[in-house]
Amino acid sequence: MKKFFWPLIISIALSLGILLGGFITSASYRAKGMYFTNHNKLKLNRLIDFIDQEYVDNVNTDSIVDNTVTNILEQLDPHSVYIANDEMQWVSESMQGSFVGIGINYYLYKDSLSVIKSIPNGPAANGGIIGGDRIIAVDKHSIVGKEITSDTVGVRLRGAEGSKALLSVYRPMTKAVIEVPVVRNVIPIKSVDVALKLSNALGYVKINRFSGTTYTEFKKALEDLKKQNIKGLVLDLRDNGGGYLSVATDILEDVLTEGQIIVKTVSKKGIEKITYAQGKGLFTKAPIYVLVNENSASASEIIAGAIQDNDRGIVVGRRTFGKGLVQRELQLGDGSAIRLTTARYYTPSGRSIQRPYDKGIEVYNHDFKTRYEHGELYAADSIKVADSLKYKTLKGRIVFGGGGIVPDWFVPLRGDHGTEAIYSVLSSGITSYFVFEELDKAREAYIVLDQEAIVNKVMNDKELINRYIKFLHIHNLQLQLDKQKEEVYFYLTGEFIKQLLSDQAYYNWILTKDPMLKKIDEMKEQ
């Protein structure tokens, strides 16, 4: 594998996620009384009409308009974006924190929809659908065959809340086809992946984005952890690309004291708005550790910056993404929307976290590759900070602006310049699919096991790594795993636990070797 292949792929995927996941000040903004009176705007309308009516070939003018809007926004900044109507439903569901469906995680395996796991308490789980089942038809309409796609599956499985669906399910373990009636319902899209008490008595909360349900999820998680007498809180915002600004401020309200600054925003006209904590007092004294990495952006950076600037806790990890632009959403009337940058945000000390984008969007989007090449992901000394952008925290500590939050305690990327791709693959969907196929061969032998037995069975399967390597090769991934056998077995075991047991069991396993949590333990002992 070429040296820079993985950093490039990761940087592109990250940038796309940030563009769609950037925080916005409100869910919707409808402009009123906006008419195309300017001559240049009329010119664009006339051109589109002329092409539509007179051009020699048939042309999709809707596509031309979409591309035109996208190109206009690209001239502004990296985070002003156009969301086409066919993407808007997914974006809206992700941000509102739910969708209507039957509640399954699935894998399009060969020519059929294979259930990895039913979501607890969802329609499918309540109907008895289990991991390994194949849904072969919905209301007698077949969803089997080489033409099957996620889109065709989604059309059949989703519908109005309360609508009924008859699922035809093939169960490989019994080789029987059963009919399962379900009633579609609202399926939550969790933004708090897990909340648990670690062995060091710290509470741990993992937030994957800031959606409409995040604060409710977070508050319940924190209240439950407080009942377990936690001695501090680890807030994991790694790979969290952002979401609603209001959710970040709500969370900070629970951990900052009254009068402390949460965030500042400055509009085009120079109007500054300062948000202060009102002193809810849910968790204001015990230590807080915020975990971040190069994929933590936007609302994640608001939280990290506020915790750092107010000397409320410790930021652990690597420099964050660097997104300090506020978007506002404009619905365009056809299901599409524009998210337009309308302000910049600043941390309590006055730092702008937005990194420069004056060299163009392509350079901006490949920042991960640049950091990789400069060694910043492996050594704190390689982080570039400008002496001219020094700021002071509430207690006088020096912090830096100019792009992202620089952590108080640095933790390098796992592995080294030759092995980072391995860790990326181990925690990716392809590993999940491999484990599914392994379970599919012998599910009956696994489903009766408890966690200890699962661990023993996986760890003692000496040929498992060879089958994994072969699976990767089939999917055009050539990785040398000879020196990482221990890590491979550890991650594969975690995925077996996740698919067979629960997310909480998975995190209890995987966090035992988390380098950022180890850093906290090391620093606490000093």
From TrEMBL:
Looking at the UniProt record for this protein, which Gene Ontology cellular component terms does it annotate, in alphabetical order?
Answer: outer membrane-bounded periplasmic space
Query: Its GO biological process terms?
Result: proteolysis; signal transduction
Show the Pfam families listed in the entry.
Answer: Peptidase_S41
Q: Which InterPro entries match?
A: ClpP/crotonase-like_dom_sf, PDZ_sf, Peptidase_S41A, Tail-specific_protease
What name has this protein been given in UniProt? Peptidase S41
Q: Which SUPFAM superfamilies match?
A: ClpP/crotonase, PDZ domain-like
Whose protein is this, by species? Myroides pelagicus
Which segments constitute the Tail specific protease domain?
175-364
Q: Which UniProt keywords apply?
A: Hydrolase, Protease, Serine protease
NCBIfam families linked to this entry: prc
Show the GO MF annotations: endopeptidase activity; serine-type peptidase activity
Q: Which residues cross the membrane?
A: none
